[in-house]
Amino acid sequence: MSVIPFDQREGVIWFDGKLVPWQDATLHVLSHGLHYASCVFEGERAYGGAIFKSTEHSQRLKKSAEYLDFEIPFSVEEIDAAKRLVLEKNGQVDAYVRPVAWRGSEMMGVSAQHNKIHLAIATWEWPSYFDPAQRLKGIRLDMAEFRRPDPATIPCKSKAAGLYMICTISKHKAERKGYADALMLDWRGQVAECTGANVFFVKDGALHTPTPDCFLDGITRRTVIDLAKRRGFEVVERAILPGELEGFSECFITGTAAEVTPVAEIGPYTFVPGAITKALLDDYMAEVQPKARAA
Ligand SMILES: Cc1ncc(COP(=O)(O)O)c(C=O)c1O
């Protein structure tokens, strides 16, 4: 992966309806989105030139903004078309796609009733979220100190930038200790998710995954649940307590960036990436290919 900083790369970025040279896609320091986190985004992947579940991501982006009380001034169809255009102009077929929408600069207090809503879309090559060698053996997860907050305190269904503050802190702490990522509990002390991915466990041939009642019900999570059911695996969505981790044989995480990534350790608990994880990893990688989708 290139180490060129993200603001110094080449290519084009779609910015409020126009394609602009990559390094010109800037915003003013007095932007409401920067000061008050009135900002939502998406993370998507294109495989073989087609974005996997593009429309679902565009719909989620629009919904995320609504939860933050703003409306993105582009339709789902326009956002889908814009993403295709940026990919094409950047000459990419396998790429990560990042739409981001935020409140502009017209008002700079907490209230920003009439601020312009901006939308930008960038794409870049991002082969593997985790170190590829470590990924296949299973990554190691720390237990995060921060918990996913009570839905009464945050718009938990929004993919809002502000909700990632505790994710970055948790991931940094985990990385400093040599882990790849951290598992977060929720405000009740139940297992929730990783800092950028959902989590699944295997016990006696069945999949167990936390009910997404205070964190993102990921598009990859739902895809993997469908794939598991297609294979005839039982999928149990329920509250999972950290004490139960000892009784699970396999564990993996799911997300657009992480795809399906086996987990070998969570704190003191160990897992062996096994047949079910491997089957779902293979099924997912087949499912995202445009040929499988056209068939
Ligand atoms: C906090 C968090 N949870 C879960 C997910 C998985 O969501 P998806 O599968 O839609 O990418 C992501 C990734 O976007 C995330 O950032």
From TrEMBL:
EC number of the protein: 2.6.1.42
What's an example GO BP annotation here?
branched-chain amino acid biosynthetic process
Q: Which GO terms describe its molecular function?
A: branched-chain-amino-acid transaminase activity
* Cofactor dependency: pyridoxal 5'-phosphate
Q: Which keywords annotate this record?
A: Amino-acid biosynthesis, Aminotransferase, Branched-chain amino acid biosynthesis, Pyridoxal phosphate, Transferase
Q: Which reaction does it catalyse?
A: L-leucine + 2-oxoglutarate = 4-methyl-2-oxopentanoate + L-glutamate; L-isoleucine + 2-oxoglutarate = (S)-3-methyl-2-oxopentanoate + L-glutamate; L-valine + 2-oxoglutarate = 3-methyl-2-oxobutanoate + L-glutamate
The metabolic or biological pathway listed in the UniProt record of this protein is: Amino-acid biosynthesis; L-valine biosynthesis; L-valine from pyruvate: step 4/4; Amino-acid biosynthesis; L-isoleucine biosynthesis; L-isoleucine from 2-oxobutanoate: step 4/4; Amino-acid biosynthesis; L-leucine biosynthesis; L-leucine from 3-methyl-2-oxobutanoate: step 4/4
Q: Which family does it belong to?
A: Belongs to the class-IV pyridoxal-phosphate-dependent aminotransferase family.
Tell me the function of this protein: Acts on leucine, isoleucine and valine.
What's the name of the protein? Answer: Branched-chain-amino-acid aminotransferase
* Species of provenance: Chelatococcus daeguensis
